[in-house]
Structure formats: structure tokens, C-alpha cells
Amino acid sequence: QRRAEWMANQFRSLGCEVEMDQAGNVIAFPERGSGPLIALTAHLDTVLAPRHKDEITVEPDGRLRGPGVADNGAGLAALLALARVWRGCQPLRGTTHRLALVANVGEEGEGNLSGMRHLCTASPLASRWRAFIVLDGPSLEHITCRAVASRRFEISYSGPGGHSWSDAGVVNPVHALSRAITLFLDRFPNGLDREAHCAFNFGLIEGGTGINAIPTSARAKLDLRAESETDLEPWVEALSSVVEEALQTENRRATAGKLTAKLREIGFRPGGQLPPDSPLLGCIRAVDAHLGIRSRLDSASTDANIPLSLGLPAVSIGAGGQGGGAHTDAEWYHPEGRDLGLKRILLILCLLMQEGSRLL
Known about the structure:
elongated
């Protein structure tokens, strides 16, 4: 919320009309008007949040270090740069489309793309969107036009708990959870299936209160991803099977108590893709050729998943510069090449706005 308020104030200081919707998204309009909308977006949230300003440092060569400086500080700063340029230029002639700059919520972690879902389905603006350019990180090498689908689950086991000595042999939720994870790994070694373009990750495990206490509960969170939603189904079925198998095994093995298990889906990101002959893709290719950028098409899970799943033209691209260490404490960003990234975004927008009625 504090980031959203800061972004809203920055947009206002640049002369934009600004609104904050029910999901927490900040939507800025650099110019007045109505009609169809082209969105330039960047997500506000980060995987790791700096607790205080000293966690973000700037080195003598201009390199920034700290959580979120590249993902997605690079995208958010680009929104402000484009707002400043757009406000300072003469309006495009003959365009029927209007630009909206969106700093949205819910892209990272368990946000479940809530900000983009609201924009595309529940917002009063939902029927006016014609295309989405999503800015995510700095890299100019990729054009993400295929949305990787994902399903996320929480596995939990519960039991009576007890003392590690006097209640030894009582059912142990941590043992059952460990067994379920091991069984799943045995079925899918290395956490991926290259032929099916699938991957998974157990990203969080919790349980227990002390080394000398049998836990009353244990849980894990799992992320399943694939380029096709249907390819996830065998993994979901396998997950349900190993959760039940681990439950039965631990209940049979224990001398007292009974465990219960619960498998709960906590997130779903739909898949989708931009057709190879999409005018939006052609527009980006033309700009890249003009600027000498060598980019490649790729797949990823981004805010573009939602519009792509709804049949709206959308891509995710970088905002320029260099970066690395995303989703870690070692994240960094350097502005070298930033100007090229911003020129690219500006030219893409100008072309889309000028040719919007024909292209979109």
C-alpha cells in the first residue's frame, strides 16, 4: 500500500490522472480521453521486501543492490520515465486508443495475479483493454509471449502431538510430510519433466514447536508449472496419491494416535499464448529490428498470463539495464543499457497507439 501511494503521488506530480482500484492497483492516464485502452504495466510487489532503506545500496559504479531493485524496481521506474516522456510530447495524431500506466499488485508469491485478474475481469475498465505490455525485470533478450500455467498446493498433516520420550511412537506429522515429499520426488526425479515442459518446487516447509516435542502439525507448499494446463493433471493426481499413501503408512507405523491430511489448492495461473502471426508480436519485432535488439520468444509465468488466457494480446518484456539475483538477498541492478530499453518501450507504444485500430 505504501508503494502504491508513493507511485500514485509520483504520477500525479507528472500531471497524470490517477486512480487506485479495489484490488490496490495504481492506474495513471498521461492524457485525457476515452475509448479503447493499451496498458503498460509493472508489478508493485516483490518476493523479498526490504525492511529498512539501508538494505538498498548504490555502489560507486551505479549498481544497485537489494531486494526488488531489478524485479521489479526496473519496471516501476520505467513507468515513471514513460509517464514523463508521454506528458512532455505532442499527442499522437489519428489514434483512437488511450494509454494507461498501471502499477499492479499480486504478481509475486501467493498473490495469484490478483491485480491483473481484477483489471481484466472485475474492473470498470475491463471491457476497454485492447493490449497489455508487461514490464518485468530488465532483460531485453526475451519476449514472453507464452504463459506458463501453474497450480499451487498446500499439503498439511495434523495429529495429537506429544513428548519426544514419554510419547515416543505417536503419529508424527513431520514424518508423514517428509514421506509424501520423498514419494513425489521418487516419481519425478530432479523436479522436472523436460519432455512435457513441466517443473515443480517445494518452496516452503513448516512444522513443530521444539526439538523435544512431537509436532501437532506440518505443512508444505508446492508450485507445479507447465506450458500446457493439461500437462499438470498427472502431477496433481500423483500428488493426491502420495499424500494419501504417506498418511496411511505413518498411521500404520505409529503405536498411538491418528493423523489427518489435507490437500488444498492455494493458487492457479492459467496458461495461454500469443499467436505467431499476432500484430502485437509483429510490432515488437519491427521495433527490435529498428533498434538492433536481438530478442527471442520464450515462456514464463507473469502478469501477462491473465490477458493471454482471456484472448487479449499481451507480452512481458524487460525494461532495460542489467540485473541478476532475482528473488534473493543478492539481487542487483545496473542501468547500463537502460536508455535502449526505454526507447524500445516508447516506440512500441507509439506504433501500437498510432496503428491500434488496424492492429488490435
